[in-house]
């Protein structure tokens, strides 16, 4: 029996284990909306008390969120098959293996303690896939990006933990540095962010998620245009269709009573 790898993370870096747990829980289902065998392998190889997360009641929602990102990256690679994807704050996301076209170049940028864990579990495979330790706010990572064949930047589960001025500065810097590029990010609605700041958000069992500082309601994506004159346009992406009640996921944004509870996923186009 292979010895499991012990992982000890807390605070914001620790959220990568919560995300992985829910993604793997959905992938184990015979009717899963997301195929992610590598996520299952990771959970099975990690020595961590995943039971502290409780029942994975948010697994399908999380998988649909991830699938929305996958489809955005897939559209980018259709137009730019040799392009670069920069994944800021990627944690233990396994998106590369789900959407790899055999040509994409992939750069992961994450905090040193997260990179150390990632390298133990998901070793680099240069030159197409590399991991760089550092904060997304330390813009030196931009020097590692050759955007000549197109660039897409993703920030999945990251921006809500930053201060509003940090989010604005990061997006503006990307727009300035990568003309013609694209950014895809997710956000939390204002009501949920305010609740998390009053008292850590209960996500099940003994786990308490860190507070969220930056927020954006569904339908507010045009506010991002104010961050930089180099931003050419924005759009709110639809969630994929799920099973059961989640079959309505693509249309939740049109239901007034519940639309503000949806986490928006926004695509930002930079001016060329």
Automatic annotation (TrEMBL):
Named from the GO MF annotations, one term is: methyltransferase activity
**What organism does this protein naturally occur in?**
Actinoallomurus bryophytorum
A Pfam family it matches: LCM
Entries under InterPro entries matching the protein? Ppm1/Ppm2/Tcmp, SAM-dependent_MTases_sf
- What this protein is called in its record is O-methyltransferase involved in polyketide biosynthesis
Report keywords, A-Z.
Answer: Methyltransferase, Transferase
So where does this one cross the membrane? none
- Any one of the GO BP annotations: methylation
Record SUPFAM superfamilies? S-adenosyl-L-methionine-dependent methyltransferases (SSF53335)
């Amino acid at each position: 029996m292979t010895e499991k790898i012990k992982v000890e993370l807390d605070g914001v870096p620790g959220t990568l284990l919560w995300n992985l747990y829910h993604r793997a829980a959905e992938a184990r289902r015979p009717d899963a909306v997301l195929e992610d065998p590598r996520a299952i392998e990771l959970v099975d190889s990690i020595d961590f008390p995943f039971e502290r997360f409780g029942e994975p009641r948010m697994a399908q929602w999380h998988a649909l969120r991830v699938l929305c990102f996958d489809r955005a990256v897939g559209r980018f690679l259709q137009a730019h098959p040799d392009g670069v994807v920069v994944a800021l704050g990627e944690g233990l996301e396994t998106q590369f293996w789900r959407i790899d076209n055999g040509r994409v170049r992939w750069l992961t940028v994450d905090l040193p303690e997260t990179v150390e864990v990632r390298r133990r579990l998901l070793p680099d495979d240069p030159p197409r896939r590399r991991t760089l330790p550092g904060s997304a706010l330390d813009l030196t990572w931009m020097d590692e990006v050759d955007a000549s064949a197109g660039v897409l930047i993703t920030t999945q589960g990251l921006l809500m933990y930053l201060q509003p001025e940090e989010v604005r500065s990061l997006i503006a810097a990307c727009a300035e540095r990568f003309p013609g590029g694209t950014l895809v990010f997710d956000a939390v609605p204002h009501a949920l962010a305010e609740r998390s700041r009053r008292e850590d958000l209960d996500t099940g069992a003994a786990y308490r998620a860190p507070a969220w500082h930056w927020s954006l309601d569904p339908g507010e994506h045009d506010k991002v245009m104010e961050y930089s004159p180099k931003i050419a346009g924005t759009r709110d992406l639809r969630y994929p269709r799920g099973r059961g009640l989640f079959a309505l996921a693509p249309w939740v944004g049109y239901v007034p009573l519940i639309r503000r509870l949806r986490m928006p996923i926004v695509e930002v186009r930079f001016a060329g």
